[in-house]
TrEMBL record, chain A:
Keyword Signal on entry: yes
Keywords of the record: Signal
InterPro entries on file: BCAA_transport, Leu-bd, Peripla_BP_I
Gene3D superfamilies in the cross-refs: 3.40.50.2300
Recorded family membership: Belongs to the leucine-binding protein family.
Leucine-binding protein domain boundaries: 40-376
Domain of life from the UniProt record: Bacteria
Signal sequence region: 1-21
Protein name: Branched-chain amino acid ABC transporter substrate-binding protein
Automatic annotation (TrEMBL), chain B:
Record Pfam families: BPD_transp_2
Transmembrane intervals: 6-33, 40-57, 63-82, 94-112, 138-157, 186-208, 220-251, 263-281
PANTHER family on file: AMINO ACID ABC TRANSPORTER PERMEASE PROTEIN, BRANCHED-CHAIN AMINO ACID TRANSPORT SYSTEM PERMEASE PROTEIN LIVH
CDD domains, A to Z: TM_PBP1_LivH_like
Full protein name: Branched-chain amino acid ABC transporter permease
Species name: Streptomyces fuscichromogenes
GO cellular component, one term: plasma membrane
Entry similarity comment: Belongs to the binding-protein-dependent transport system permease family. LivHM subfamily.
Membrane topology field: Multi-pass membrane protein
GO biological processes: amino acid transport
Keyword tags: Amino-acid transport, Cell membrane, Membrane, Transmembrane, Transmembrane helix, Transport
From TrEMBL, chain C:
Designated name of the protein: Branched-chain amino acid ABC transporter ATP-binding protein
Taxonomic lineage from the root: Bacteria, Bacillati, Actinomycetota, Actinomycetes, Kitasatosporales
Organism field: Streptomyces fuscichromogenes
Alphabetized UniProt keyword annotations: Amino-acid transport, ATP-binding, Nucleotide-binding, Transport
SUPFAM superfamilies in the cross-refs: P-loop containing nucleoside triphosphate hydrolases (SSF52540)
PROSITE patterns the UniProt entry points to: ABC_TRANSPORTER_1, ABC_TRANSPORTER_2
Listed InterPro entries: AAA+_ATPase (IPR003593), ABC_transporter-like_ATP-bd (IPR003439), ABC_transporter-like_CS (IPR017871), BCA_ABC_TP_C (IPR032823), BCAA_Transport_ATP-bd_LivF (IPR052156), P-loop_NTPase (IPR027417)
Claim: Lipid biosynthesis is one of the keywords in the record: no
GO BP, sorted A to Z: L-amino acid transport
Length: 399, 287, 536
């Protein structure tokens, strides 16, 4: 090293002299492009790790996949094994921050591909990926909700319709009067959910006896409860923020409304649901992953993260992040030169089995399986599909 | 619309009043719009959760301790941070309370995580039938407690010498100081009292509903709406305004559907501000 | 009367604010290029008159003409464009803008924008040319006043109205301000001054209008006005004998004079733990304005000391400084042998200093009894509290009768009794009273002064700040006359009972002596009791 240094310094000085003041400030690690060299391949994510949404579990899934590849010596690109460097930036649940961070990931960190955040941020990130012509691999956004873009955003996650169908398949096995009380938040997503679930419910032979839209932050659900009681609806579908669900479940119990099935979309998956104690027992939730479904790498994910994330839903998020990163790494390895354009091309021809099952993209989307779980004594267990499931129990919490 | 809905509105209004009372007190006496009031409420709920969730106490037993705890935290904040700022510009303490609000949210998140929490209690999800009207037990308890706390606050303000010192410091701090009243201390005590009231509201919110580090903001807005309806500086008005807000919400939901709740409430709110800018129920305890 | 020679004509002008009559039947005619002063005690309606002329307020009756043009129905900006400008007592520059921009913006209010040379000339006239590029925030008080005048002049007024522009200035600053107004006047601008400082009036104007309670009571040359009995009565307060009050004390005049001589010779007051209050070379004020300069005073146990002086003399600042509501810049304040210069207000109160502020300041929404209780420490036992209340009720029986009534609903005199009673609840060793007779009927004043004597008889020292000279001199042991922040008399009340002496200390009447002193700022060598440190 000692003998090399002077020459390096000389070279640097010469380069500086040549470039005069212009490029002098740049140091050699950042000025070197990650493409066409043997250095690490940089991928990046601007993800919400603080603020209203905290997605630490997804981030851990990303890191898990990257660590696994690097432990095996890296990903083979053009015959050379190269490590992958994952740059994680916390956008603090703020969209403007996310936009800035995505730009800086691509422009100054030279990330050749991006991993997503969640929900609305994923939709907003699509435009950035298209503008920067950098592939963006995301989950945590139902495939129906990804808007048509310029082809740089890739979404592999559950489908809303599939999720609803799974619920109705399960509901058909229970003995109910097939009358539904639908309660959804009165924002765009709530309205879309109401229409989709209502339509699919009718197809499956159910009737929507009453449908109520409630604003976020509602604490008094007496109107909803009353309409449930008066219509005699035995199936409750609630699509709301967690706090609203908590208040409604308490109020339903107190005011003696007793449906036979109740599913909490967007709300009942939270580990905090166990704080409801026995009141939460029997509540159904949607899942994108369960440890009992026999999906690939389940053992590894449970072994590494079951302690940090005792809640099934969080563990499912680790699996989701792992799945996204797996798909991206696979595409990088097939890209030939690890340039954004080549990776984007490679993603289109993905044909593999990830932690969430088999994946193939059609129009930048691929649907992963949906599961229905049920709360029982502070834990969620898979009750549908039947493979790997425990039998459906009664809604004892509200009974 | 049935009596159930009306009763639920009245009872929910009690909790609104309890949250609004602290905001109103601080604004009336200190002239400070406390943007961290929602976090004082949530802070009370988290304090109680240490005793309720972790040590198995009944929330009502934890309530006085949560009130005292929040008062102890709030006192030095006012005495050594906000009061010195009040001496300077009008906007500095406002900005400071906003900063405190963000800081508190970050602290809650670090200490308790982001998942919703609730305070389990036997009365959280049981109901009562009164004259054929079915109501949630916890809201009956909350309403009763609110009435007691409002009455207590009112009596302290109007029947004790400390209360008249507080009203004096609110009306004319310079003259109060000339009379030997330590105005800084009165301010800090007021803030601590408001924090204790907030904590009581937080514990009841935790039992009846749930809370997360970020659920302070809607509570602040509710409290602010109550204060504006009530007018500044009237304890009875705060209670009446809370109930009015609760009834308005449940009646509008039952008549127009949940989607219109906020529209109706804020329309009424602006109407009141336009027609009676001093609030619906202004009856001065100060100023 | 409205000839081409007339700049401004005011006829039968009246204005009410709610139930309060601010102006009533005021006539004033100002000739072109004349300088006129409007004087009168606080609340006389002086500023209201200027604001009515400028169109800031609407008149209720009467008329205002500028030349032939009727003004009183025009909006303020039209009046400004016609050539009437108003400069305020407290300058309000646009912060963040330079001096030049401030003046230029002033010019935009009227007619074509001011060009460079004209602007430079105006800045030079106001001695602001060297500071034109500085931000207005950086100016000291004299330059702020200059800027205020420059901004008014930028509208190219025919008539310039100055509302106490010299307030808060002393010494050389005052000379400069007078000089500026004189230069403006000599340019041919008609000037209307509202002023408390007698010297400004005397040096600048030809004619004086005196207002009291909104009515004109005298008009004439400064010299005529100075001799007017009615004007003197207005300034010295009511001169009716204090029938129930005590006779004039017979203090040891010679000793007082000696101590006064000491005070002026050196500001060091020897510390004496027996003394109730000692101020030693105290300077204080608000912002840039020093209202009290190098002031020394001693109040002994059981003594009644009165501080007299015209409006703006620094009397209320003295009270505030003693109590801590106004910060002390230099000097030392001692109470009962303890240095209290940096003690917070409420702790001074707890030491036994009670303070009845000007304007009574009772808590209007609290009951009379609640107001009284606030005067006592919170920790005071109930029994002792009631004993003290009984004692106050004995002095002011009306406070017992009205215990449950809201204080705001009582009459002015009763409120003043409540304020004094409230102060007594602290069981003070010294009571500071600021203008307790202001605005009260003579019968109420009688009752209050009777009470003060009783309070004093119980051993409470009293520092009495008054405009009502006769009343104050009637009960005090020692008197101090303040003139623009400095002491102009110090000694026994007997030294002021002679009207000429009083005039000299108070108004600085242009006696031959004073006329000399106005050009040679020096202490009177002949009179040790009169310390005209500042020529007046």
């Amino acid at each position: 090293m000692r003998t090399v240094r002077p020459s390096l310094r000389l070279a640097c000085a010469a380069a500086c002299a040549a470039l005069l003041a212009a490029g002098c400030a740049g140091n050699d690690t950042t000025s070197a492009s990650s493409t066409g060299s043997t250095g690490p391949i940089v991928i990046g994510t601007s993800i919400s790790l603080s603020g209203t949404t905290v997605l630490t579990s997804i981030k851990d899934g990303y890191q898990l996949a990257v660590d696994k590849v690097n432990a095996a010596g890296g990903v083979k690109v053009d015959g050379v094994k190269r490590k992958i460097k994952l740059v994680v930036l916390d956008n603090r649940s703020d969209t403007n921050t996310m936009v800035q961070q995505v730009r800086s990931l691509v422009l100054s960190d030279h990330a050749v591909a991006l991993l997503g955040s969640c929900c609305q941020q994923n939709i907003d990130m699509e435009g950035q990926a298209d503008a920067l012509k950098t592939p963006l691999m995301m989950g945590a956004l139902p495939v129906e909700l990804l808007p048509a873009g310029k082809g740089y955003a890739w979404d592999s996650f559950q489908s809303l319709a599939d999720g609803a169908d799974k619920f109705y398949e399960l509901a058909a096995t229970a003995s109910t009067n097939k009358k539904i009380l639908m309660v959804s938040s009165n924002d765009a997503q709530g309205k879309a959910t109401e229409q989709l679930w209502g339509g699919l419910g009718k197809k499956a032979g159910f009737t929507v006896a009453s449908s109520k839209a409630v604003p976020n932050g509602t604490t008094d659900f007496s109107d909803v409860v009353q309409s449930g009681k008066s219509t005699g609806a035995q199936i409750l579908i609630a699509d709301m923020a967690p706090q609203d669900c908590f208040a409604m479940w308490k109020q339903m119990k107190a005011l003696a409304y007793r449906p036979k099935l109740a599913i909490g979309l967007q709300c009942a998956q939270t580990p905090g649901w166990s704080a409801l104690g026995s009141l939460g027992d029997g509540t159904l939730v949607q899942l994108n992953w369960t440890e009992s479904a026999g999906l690939p790498d389940t053992q590894m994910i449970v072994a590494k993260y079951a302690k940090k994330y005792p809640a099934l839903n969080d563990l499912g998020s680790v699996a989701l992040g792992y799945h996204e990163a797996e798909l991206l790494v696979d595409a990088i390895s097939r890209s030939g030169d690890a340039t954004p354009a080549a990776i984007n091309k490679a993603l289109a021809t993905t044909d593999m089995t990830s932690a969430l099952g088999p994946v193939k993209f059609t129009a930048n989307k691929s649907t992963t399986p949906s599961f229905i779980g049920q709360w029982e004594s502070g834990k969620i267990q898979q009750v549908w599909p039947a493979k790997g499931a425990v039998p459906l129990k009664s809604l004892s919490g509200l009974g | 619309m049935s009596l159930d809905v009306l009763a639920a509105g009245i009872l929910a209004g009690g909790l609104y009043a309890l949250i609004g009372l602290g905001i109103s007190l601080v604004f009336g006496v200190l002239g400070l719009m406390n943007l961290a009031h929602g976090e004082l409420v949530i802070g009370g709920a988290y304090l109680a959760s240490l005793l309720v969730v972790d040590a198995g106490w009944d929330p009502l037993a934890a309530l006085p301790l949560a009130m005292a705890g929040m008062a102890l935290i709030a006192y030095p904040l006012q005495r050594y941070l906000l009061t010195p700022l009040l001496r300077g510009s009008k906007s500095a303490p406002l900005v400071a309370t906003f900063g405190l609000s963000l800081l508190a949210q970050a602290l809650f998140q670090a200490a308790f995580g982001t998942h919703p929490k609730a305070l389990p209690a036997s009365y959280a999800d049981t109901g009562l039938s009164v004259l054929g009207v079915r109501v949630q037990t916890v809201y009956v308890i909350a309403f009763g407690l609110t009435v007691v706390l409002c009455a207590g606050t009112h009596l302290i303000l109007t029947r004790t010498r400390a209360g008249s010192a507080l009203r004096a410091a609110s009306a004319d701090p310079d003259t109060a100081a000339v009379l030997g009243i330590d105005v800084d201390r009165v301010y800090a005590m007021t803030f601590a009292g408001a924090a204790a009231l907030a904590a009581a509201g937080g514990v009841l919110t935790g039992v009846a509903q749930s809370f997360t580090p970020s659920s302070g903001l809607p509570l602040l807005l509710t409290g602010f709406a109550v204060m504006a309806l009530a007018g500044i500086g009237s304890v009875g008005g705060v209670l009446a305004a809370g109930v009015a807000l609760g009834v308005l919400q449940s009646v509008s939901v039952s008549l127009f559907g949940g989607g219109w709740r906020d529209v109706v409430v804020y329309l009424a709110f602006f109407l009141v501000l336009a027609v009676r800018p001093q609030g619906l129920f202004r009856k001065a305890y100060a100023g | 009367m409205r000839t081409s020679d007339t700049a401004l004509t005011v006829r039968g002008l009246g204005k009410h604010f709610g139930g309060v009559t601010a102006l009533d039947g005021v006539d004033l005619t100002v000739r072109r290029a004349e300088a006129v002063a409007v004087i009168g005690p606080n609340g006389a309606g002086k500023s209201t008159l200027l604001k009515l002329i400028a169109g800031v307020h609407r008149r209720d009756s009467g008329s205002i003409h500028l030349g032939e043009r009727r003004l009183d129905r025009l909006p303020p900006h039209r009046i400004t464009r016609l050539g009437v400008a108003l400069a305020h007592q407290v300058p309000r520059p646009f912060h963040g803008l330079t001096v030049r921009d401030n003046v230029r913006i002033g010019a935009m209010a009227a007619g074509p924008p001011m060009r460079g040379p004209e602007l430079d000339e105006l800045l030079a006239l106001c001695r602001l040319d060297t500071k034109a590029a500085r931000p207005a925030d950086s100016l000291r008080v004299l330059d702020l006043k200059r800027l205020e005048v420059a901004r008014a002049l930028a509208t190219r007024p025919q008539v310039l109205m100055l509302d106490e522009v010299a307030a808060g200035l002393v010494g050389r600053e005052l000379d400069e301000a007078i000089d500026l107004i004189r230069r403006v006047h000599q340019r041919g601008t008609t000037v209307i001054l509202v002023e408390h400082i007698e010297r400004v009036v005397r040096e600048l104007v030809d004619r004086v209008l005196v207002l009291n309670w909104g009515r004109p009571i005298a008009e004439g040359t400064p010299a005529q006005i100075a001799l007017d009995e009615q004007v003197r009565a207005v300034y010295l307060g009511d001169s009716s004998p204090a029938g129930t009050g005590p006779a004039v004390h017979s203090p040891d005049v010679s000793q007082d004079m000696r101590s006064a001589g000491q005070d002026t010779a050196s500001t060091a007051v020897p510390a004496d733990t027996d003394d109730v209050l000692v101020l030693d070379g105290v300077t204080s004020g608000y912002g840039d304005m020093l209202a009290l300069r190098d002031f020394s005073l001693r109040v002994r146990p059981g003594q009644i000391v009165t501080v007299l002086g015209a409006n703006g003399a620094g009397k209320s600042t003295l009270c505030g400084t003693l109590m801590g509501t106004v910060g002390t810049r230099t000097g030392r304040i001692t109470a009962f042998g303890r240095d209290i210069t940096r003690l917070p207000v409420h702790e001074r109160a707890r030491l036994g200093i009670a303070y009845c502020q000007e304007g009574r300041r009772v808590f209007g929404d609290l009951t009379v009894a609640e107001n009284l209780q606030l005067g006592a420490p919170l920790s005071l036992a109930k029994g002792e509290l009631h004993t003290r209340m009984d004692r106050v009720h004995a002095v002011f029986p009306v406070l017992a009768e009205r215990a449950g009534q809201k204080a705001g609903t009582m009459s002015g005199g009763q409120q003043q009794m409540l304020a004094v009673g409230r102060a007594l609840m602290a069981n003070p060793s010294v009571l500071i009273c600021d203008e307790i007779s202001l605005g009260l009927a003579p019968v109420a004043i009688d009752a209050l002064y009777q009470a003060l004597t009783e309070i004093n008889a119980q051993g409470v020292a009293i520092l009495l700040v008054e405009q009502n000279v006769k009343r104050a001199l009637g009960i005090c042991d020692h008197a101090v006359v303040l003139s623009r922040g400095r002491v102009s008399y110090r000694g026994g009340p007997a030294g002021l009972l002679d009207e000429a002496d009083l005039d000299a200390a108070y108004f600085g009447t242009p006696t031959p002596d004073a006329a000399v002193s106005s050009t040679t700022p020096a202490t009177h060598p002949g009179s040790p009791a009169r310390t005209t440190g500042d020529p007046s």
